[in-house]
Amino acid sequence: MSQKKVGFISLGCPKALVDSERILTQLRTDGYEISPTYHDANVVVVNTCGFIDDAKRESLEAIGEAMAENGKVIVTGCMGNEAAKIRELYPDVLSVTGAHAYEEVVGAVHQFVPQEVIHNPLIDLVPPQGIKLTPRHYAYLKISEGCNHRCSFCIIPSLRGDLVSRPIGDVMDEAERLANAGVKELLVISQDTSAYGVDIKYRTGFWQGRPMKSNMKSLCEGLASLGIWVRLHYVYPYPHVDDIIPMMADGLILPYLDIPFQHGSPKILKSMKRPAHAENTLERIHKWRSICPDLTLRSTFIVGYPGETEEDFNILLDFLKEAQLDRVGCFQYSPVEGAKANELADQVPDEVKEERHARFMEVQAEISKQRLQDKIGKTVHVLIDEVDEEGAIGRTKADAPEIDGMVYLNGETELAPGDLVTAKIFQADEHDLWAEMTDFDDTL
Ligand code: SF4
Question: How high is the pLDDT of residue 228?
Fold first, then answer.
């Protein structure tokens, strides 16, 4: 399956460029490829300018060219306020919106060039809700496409191909523009963030005229310099990840790692062909926590993978007890069409999968609950996501949007999404926290 491609023409002032950047970032996150030519694109977005007559003329010409060369055109930007004029000249444009309408533009791309959606919670980069577009104060930053691994339960490499890292200068430019546009938190995503740059041999790129290596450490250093929250998803426990932990301890990037471990039994991990399956992960976790005690670890696991014996499952439970992970998702193994694991012998019966899933959840729920209880009495930074009539709802540095827990600040109705405050935690359940705001905080 080839990825759907979107052509993009961006006209106008720096504000229009910010809109273009947000639209492109979201489209990339949603799995679209950006095409440099009309010919390859499945649809073309024209972000117009309507400032003066010359700009309007240029915008109309750009729409005309895109219609002639491609024929499937979505118009947005300031000139979009004159929709009637555009439609009079080009009645077949697919949609017309005004400035700062990036939600509508991305919606139109999804509508007219739908992606083949293969939802698999084990390997999806963003939660399904993420498709609905992120609020304006956080954004996903996709650093690469594809994957060099060949996990036996996964078909991503056959769909998306091998790893292709984006040039570091492009990633940093995008991150900088998002930060300048008011984004307070970047969520770094890829199929394997720790593999960034492997395919391009960690070549040196440039950002702001300075040389930068295309590797995970220098990417983190660059992102840390933007002064906003930086959260890493889909990291594997390779030795070079150790280099990132001191940056977390120093508060340069969020002390948070999302590592899809998938299992704790070496035999099953090997059968799954998981990245870093030969590493001593528990030892590594202990070492990381000794350097950065506030480190939050999130993970996902599969129970009932073919060949998983009761002994393997007990090794997994022991792993959980020792690893003391903060947030964990658990899925019962189910075959994905085309995956190698389907051919394995010893498929686990459904009732055994269910029973193991329940036992797993029982053990982990207790761990997660205890780890949240331990936060009571602490003062934390909270980034506000929503405000309603009852108060504000936000997240701490330990919580990624959509997948982790919330912090409820009851009564704080004057705050706005994107505000950063400090708050003292007074209550916790097994998922969420309740806290009292102590101060505004603009330090990030
Ligand atoms: S690391 Fe494994 S599970 Fe993740 S995309 Fe690559 S092959 Fe799939």
Answer: 96
Q: Which residues line ligand 1 (CB under 6 A)?
A: 123, 147, 149-151, 154, 156-157, 191-192, 275
What is the chain's mean pLDDT, rounded? 91
Rounded CA separation 261/232 (Å)? 15
Atom of ligand 1 nearest to the CA of 122: 3
pLDDT above 90 (res 12): no
Helix (H, G, I), strand (E, B), or coil: what is residue 333? coil
Residue 31 Cα, ligand 1 centroid: separation in angstroms? Answer: 16
Cα of 150 vs centre of ligand 1, distance in Å, is 6
Instruction: State which of 142, 192, 269 you would mutate to test the pocket of ligand 1, scoring each by most atoms of that ligand within 8 A of its C-beta.
Output: 192
Q: Considering all CA atoms of the chain, what is the largest pairwise distance in Å, rounded to the nearest integer? A: 74
Those residues whose C-beta lies under 8 Å from the C-beta of residue 348, and which sit 6 or more positions away, are: 304, 305, 306, 308, 333, 356
Q: Are 125 and 29 in contact (CB under 8 A)?
A: yes
Q: Whose CA is nearest to atom 4 of ligand 1?
A: 191
Residue 393: its H or E element: strand 391-395
pLDDT beyond 90 at 20:
no
Looking at the CA of residue 147, tell me the nearest atom of ligand 1.
6
Instruction: Give the Å distance between the CA of 13 and the centre of ligand 1.
Output: 40
**What φ, ψ does residue 434 adopt, rounded to 5°?**
-125, 135
What confidence tens digit (pLDDT) does each residue in 62-73 have? Answer: 999 999 999 999
- The DSSP output letter for 167 is P
AA identity, residue 444: L
- pTM for the structure as a whole: 0.82
User: Would you say residue 132 has pLDDT above 50?
Assistant: no
Q: Annotate 280-301 with b (16+ C-beta within 10 A) or e (fewer).
A: ebeebbeebbeebeebbbbbbb
β strands within 56-143, DSSP E: 73-77, 95-96, 138-142
Using the structure block, give the residue that is written with the tokens 């220098």. Answer: 218
pLDDT band at 101 (very low <50, low <70, confident <90, very high): confident
